[in-house]
Amino acid sequence: MAERTLGVVLFPGFELLDVFGPLEAFGGLPGLFRVVLVAEQSGPVASAQQVRAVADHGLADCPRLDLLLVPGGIGTREEVENRALLDWLARRAAEAEIVASVCTGAALLARAGVLDGRRATTNKAFASRETTAPHAT
């Protein structure tokens, strides 16, 4: 099986567990997955816990992604208004084989129109936020 590229999106206020929990699982499959961290700009990005992770790529120079993972976190509240990120998510989701989110990352996919016509779940405390996204169904 050919190596697949997994892109994990970082944004200010992302939830550490939503990123590094899945990465621990994918990291246990060497040769099957290449993991890249992507943010609006490459470089350090502060999580909700103020721990920084380093984005390998910015949106403009991100390689082709076979899988796309969007974490949740308190930062989704602001990122649902980030048109550059939302447009990038819509384009990249259309090209990826698999698109997944963790928790409130679903809000970003909904706002980008990726969830149109699809069922999705998220943290129940934030469900009304998801359903008020302009493209959510």
List keywords for this structure.
137 residues, two-stranded antiparallel sheet, disordered C terminus
Describe this structure in words.
- With 137 residues, the chain is of the alpha/beta class.
- 30% of the residues lie in helices and 23% in strands.
- The chain is built from 5 helices and 7 strands, in the order E-H-E-E-E-E-E-H-H-E-H-H.
- The strands form 2 sheets. Strands 5-2-1-6-7 form a 5-stranded parallel sheet, sandwiched between helices. Strands 3-4 form a two-stranded antiparallel ribbon.
- Strand 1, helix 1 and strand 2 form a beta-alpha-beta unit.
- The radius of gyration is 14 Å and the shape is globular.
Question: Order of strands in the sheet with the most strands?
Answer: 5-2-1-6-7
Would you count the extended β strands for me? 7
Structural class: alpha/beta
How much β-strand is present in the residues? 15-25%
Please give the count of helices.
Answer: 5
Percent of residues in helices comes to 25-40%
Distance between the termini: 36 Å
Main beta-sheet annotation: 5 strands, parallel
Unreliable parts? 129-137
Mean pLDDT: 90
SSE order, as H and E?
EHEEEEEHHEHH
Shape annotation: globular
Radius of gyration: 14 Å
Quick recap:
The chain has 137 residues and is of the alpha/beta class.
Helix and strand topology:
Elements lengths: L3 E6 L6 H12 L5 E7 L3 E4 L5 E4 L1 E2 L8 E4 L5 H4 L3 H13 L2 E4 L3 H7 L15 H5 L6
Parallel strand pairs: 1-2, 1-6, 2-5, 6-7
Antiparallel strand pairs: 3-4
